[in-house]
Structure prediction request, 125 residues.
Amino acid sequence: MTVRIKRVYDMPEPSDGVRILVDRLWPRGMAKEKARIDLWLKDISPSDDLRRRFHARPESWDEFRTLYAAELEGEAEQVALAELERHIAQGPVTLLYAARDERHNNAAALKMWLEEKALKPTEGG
Prediction:
């Protein structure tokens, strides 16, 4: 599984593979042509409520990750996750985000969740 995260404002590179925006809102001031986004998965992003709560309290990173993981179990999220997993299986994927904090953002939380999920043994195996 090759999944990277990158700020949408950083220059696209060939090594990015499929570039997937995982924010609910379009990045401020970013032209679609310049962003070179292959796919926008709004449904995989945190809810507006959770996004606002975390923005107001960035020190609540662990709580944010836990609540976001719970949201990823929703029906709409499952469709988006299935599409994301198809792209991951085909080659490198870069999850794009707009936040300034490179370590504490929804793309980082999603990547960590995907990695933790991949490490869990499947039932019966």
Remarks:
- The chain has five helices and four strands.
- The chain has one domain: 3-119.
- The longest strand covers residues 3-7.
- The CA atoms of residues 43 and 75 lie 10 Å apart.
